[in-house]
Amino acid sequence: MSDPYKNVYPSMAECAAEAARVARGVRAGRLSEPTHCPAWDVRALVNHWVLYTSHGLEHRALRTSLSEELTARDFTADPGWAQAYADQLDRAVAAWDDPAVWEGEIDLGMAKMGAAELAGMIVKEMAVHGWDVATATGQEYRISEGAARLVLDVVETHGDLYRQYDGFAEPVAVADDAPVFERALAASGRDPRQRPMGRLDH
Question: What positions belong to coiled-coil segments (predicted)?
């Protein structure tokens, strides 16, 4: 990854836009429904997604920590949470729109990680949890092949680490010629053949 700003930033912006679109499609009545993530209903999944892929993304760029108030907040308690998430995603993506932000390391508290590597991992969170939310709420999730390749690379590179902390289940078998994003989902322990739950007609 010779120039992560040029190579990863477009995928970050694309996945953020898709995350905002999916969030707007989540109906209030579905927040208490189950998801494919063990022990998480839609509300818990959305709160995790919003916290780390928008607020967390901006704070990492600024090299600041998330406050206790943010980490404890139920974002979905605000009827306008989806628009607030979209606005925060815009701020977060704007914070990374500077090649200098992609240089050096970011202090995670117990360890440090290269900024570009961490940014790629958060883009993966946007996409994979975006698919989780979409699938749990009757929607489709769509990203380009370029963004999907980034997600697959992150999943394959860090899969063992995620599984160590129960972030991923064991990989699901798919065909070698399956679409790139389906291979990324499968490598993260998700079944890409899972159809949207209670599919909506838009």
Answer: none
Decide if 108 contacts 24 (C-beta within 8 A). Answer: no
> Which stretches of the chain drop beneath a pLDDT of 50?
1, 199-202
Residue 120 and residue 126: Cα distance in Å, rounded?
A: 10
Burial class (CB in 10 A: 0-12, 13-18, 19+), 64: exposed
Neighbours of 180 (CB within 10 A): 18
Tokens of 21: 């679109």
- Reading the block at residue 192, the tokens are 């890409």
Interhelix angle 115-136/180-187, rounded to 10 degrees, is 90
Structural contact between residues 37 and 137, judged by C-beta atoms closer than 8 angstroms: no
CA distance 191 to 131: 11
- Give the rounded distance of the alpha carbon of 73 from its chain centre: 18
Residue 192 CB coordination number (10 Å): 17
Query: What is the pTM (predicted TM-score) of this model?
Result: 0.91
Residue 49: half-sphere exposure toward Cβ, Cα within 13 Å: 31
Burial status of residue 12 (CB atoms within 10 A of its CB: 0-12, 13-18, 19 or more):
buried
Q: Which residue type occupies 28?
A: A
**Which pLDDT tens digit goes with each residue over 119-139?**
999 999 999 999 999 999 999
Let me know: does 150 contact 39? Beta carbons within 8 Å.
no
pLDDT in tens, 64-76: 999 999 999 999 9
